[in-house]
């Protein structure tokens, strides 16, 4: 009998203990539910802030795009003035007399047209690289870009200074130099394709301008222009493309709205 009474007493104590722990368990579960609701509330907060972050990213990307466009325009306009002055001084390019008495002995429309073309080409190169999924990483440094500019200026200088027996020999020499410039500072298929396309389109535009008497070339041997002019356009496109690629390094990507 004493043994039975001790067992009954222990069972009643255990039951009272379970009843006492139930409120604590309920509080614990409530705390867990509140704590589990925290991440969801945080995710809701992040979702509410996401539109503002996307707008800021778009604004930042647009600002970088405008800055790159301005830099490319200035570089293209300045290079056009300097290089065209050399062609005019060597009587390779002839402008009308009423036009020639302007800045750097060049027509007023040459700097803005060349600057706009440089901005378009410089923005197009990294855009094509991104579209093809082949980021250009060969010699991506400003020292290489400056050397590329120096070689391009040298090729343009050679077109006006070097004397060959005929324009065909000069054209072949400049073509080899232009391909060497691409191989040394670019080596990408997109760069080669864009350079050829730019040379073709720029040559057609130049043929049209010369045909309509806007200006002219002395001793034309390729319809109305010199046969080496496409080589200048090709090397210029590769050079401006390298500048545009270098300016595009480290900028944020354009956000996409899914």
UniProtKB/TrEMBL annotation:
It comes from Anser cygnoides. Residues 17-55 are annotated as: Disordered. Mediates feedback control of cholesterol synthesis. Pfam families: INSIG (PF07281). This is Insulin-induced gene protein. Keywords: Cholesterol metabolism, Endoplasmic reticulum, Lipid metabolism, Lipid-binding, Membrane, Steroid metabolism, Sterol metabolism, Transmembrane, Transmembrane helix. InterPro entries: INSIG_fam. The gene is INSIG1. GO terms for biological process: cellular response to insulin stimulus; cholesterol biosynthetic process; SREBP signaling pathway; SREBP-SCAP complex retention in endoplasmic reticulum. It is a multi-pass membrane protein.
């Amino acid at each position: 009998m004493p043994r039975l009474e001790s067992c009954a007493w222990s069972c009643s104590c255990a039951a009272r203990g379970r009843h006492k722990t139930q409120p604590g368990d309920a509080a614990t579960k409530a705390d867990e539910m509140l704590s589990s609701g925290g991440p969801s509330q945080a995710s809701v907060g992040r979702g509410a802030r996401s539109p503002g972050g996307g707008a800021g990213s778009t604004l930042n990307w647009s600002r970088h795009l405008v800055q790159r466009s301005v830099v490319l325009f200035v570089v293209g306009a300045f290079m056009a003035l300097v290089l065209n002055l050399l062609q005019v001084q060597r009587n390779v390019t002839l402008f009308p007399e009423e036009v020639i008495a302007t800045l750097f002995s060049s027509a007023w429309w040459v700097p803005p047209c060349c600057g706009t073309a440089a901005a378009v080409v410089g923005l197009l190169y990294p855009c094509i690289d991104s579209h093809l999924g082949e980021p250009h990483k060969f010699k991506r440094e400003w020292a290489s870009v400056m050397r590329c500019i120096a070689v391009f200026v040298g090729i343009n200088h050679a077109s006006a200074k070097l004397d060959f027996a005929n324009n065909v020999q000069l054209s072949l020499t400049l073509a080899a130099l232009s391909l060497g410039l691409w191989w040394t500072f670019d080596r990408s298929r997109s760069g080669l394709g864009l350079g050829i396309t730019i040379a073709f389109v720029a040559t057609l535009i130049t043929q049209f301008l010369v045909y309509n008497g806007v200006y002219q070339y002395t001793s034309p041997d390729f319809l109305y222009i010199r046969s080496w002019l496409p080589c200048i356009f090709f090397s210029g496109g590769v050079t401006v493309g390298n500048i545009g690629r270098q300016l595009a390094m480290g900028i944020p990507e354009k956000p996409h709205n899914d």
